[in-house]
């Protein structure tokens, strides 16, 4: 289980689902004959099951799919924004450095998508999710049916009904309002990738810089 102090826990289903959609490139981990790890984009069907269902595919040449037998559990980690937090940003001193971040863990027992028709629909869903214009009629970048059929032979689809869903949003909630303001002000100056973390902190903090 993910170690999550109470102040960092996030259990609201709609919040977790929104996070998973926004940060859909996940780390998929399972234990078969050995520990297997694959990095994949996963799509969420929120209304399938109590906690939703994840859908994805991977290369047939990747033996990881052999763990997806509907019996062995798989962990999918969705990584959000993160940043080093300097103790010099706090009003309260002395303090120690830390790292702020947000992640969601989804667990379930995936099963393979076997039929060619279902696998083809999965690819259509992937394109519609990430690049809708690719599937538009006449787009020369989109493979014709014959080539598409050959490509489908080289991938394996799966769906994972979510059994457990856990969110950890470590955003300085355990610090005073003054310290949280100090963090947000420093992240603003730092810019770059830190701005995504700053936005998430602003959404969830009562403290305003």
Distance between the termini: 34 Å
Net shape: elongated
Poorly predicted residue ranges: none
How much beta, percentage-wise? 25-35%
Give Rg in angstroms.
20 Å
Number of strands: 9
Order of helices and strands: EHEEEEEEEHHEHH
Structural class: alpha+beta
Main sheet specs: 9 strands, antiparallel
Number of helices, counting only DSSP H or I runs of 4 residues or more: 5
Mean pLDDT: 93
Helix content: 25-40%
Write a concise synopsis of the structure shown.
By secondary structure, the chain is α+β, with helices and mostly antiparallel strands.
Describe it:
The relative contact order is 0.20. Strands 1, 2, 3, 4, 5, 6, 7, 8 and 9 form a 9-stranded antiparallel beta sheet that branches. Helix 4 (177-190) runs antiparallel to helix 5. The protein has 5 helices and 9 strands, in the order βαβββββββααβαα. The model has no long low-confidence stretch (mean pLDDT 93). By secondary structure, it is α+β, with helices and mostly antiparallel strands.
What are the salient characteristics of this protein?
209 residues; alpha+beta; nine-stranded antiparallel sheet; 9 strands; 28% helix; elongated
Per-chain topology:
Elements: E1 9-10, H1 13-22, E2 25-31, E3 35-41, E4 43-45, E5 53-59, E6 74-85, E7 98-108, E8 111-113, H2 116-130, H3 145-152, E9 155-170, H4 177-190, H5 194-204
Antiparallel strand pairs: 1-9, 2-3, 2-6, 4-5, 5-9, 6-7, 7-9, 8-9
Helix pairs in contact: 4-5
């Amino acid at each position: 289980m993910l170690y999550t102090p109470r102040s960092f826990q996030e259990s609201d289903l709609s919040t977790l689902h929104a996070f998973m959609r926004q940060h859909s490139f996940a780390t998929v981990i399972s234990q078969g004959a050995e520990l297997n790890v694959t990095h994949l984009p996963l799509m969420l069907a929120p209304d399938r099951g109590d906690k939703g269902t994840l859908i994805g595919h991977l290369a047939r040449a990747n033996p990881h799919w052999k763990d997806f037998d509907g019996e062995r559990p798989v962990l999918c980690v969705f990584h959000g924004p993160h940043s080093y937090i300097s103790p010099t940003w706090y009003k309260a001193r002395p303090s120690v450095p830390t790292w702020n971040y947000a992640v969601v863990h989804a667990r379930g027992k995936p099963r393979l998508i076997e039929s060619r028709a279902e696998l083809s629909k999965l690819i259509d869903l992937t394109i519609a999710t990430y690049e809708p214009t690719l599937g538009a009629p006449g787009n020369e970048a989109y493979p014709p049916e014959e080539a598409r059929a050959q490509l489908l032979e080289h991938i394996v689809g799966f769906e994972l009904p979510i059994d457990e869903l856990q969110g950890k949003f470590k955003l300085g909630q355990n610090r005073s309002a003054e310290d949280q303001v100090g963090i947000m002000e420093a992240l603003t100056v730092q810019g770059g990738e830190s701005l995504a973390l700053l936005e998430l902190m602003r959404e969830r903090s009562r403290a305003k810089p």
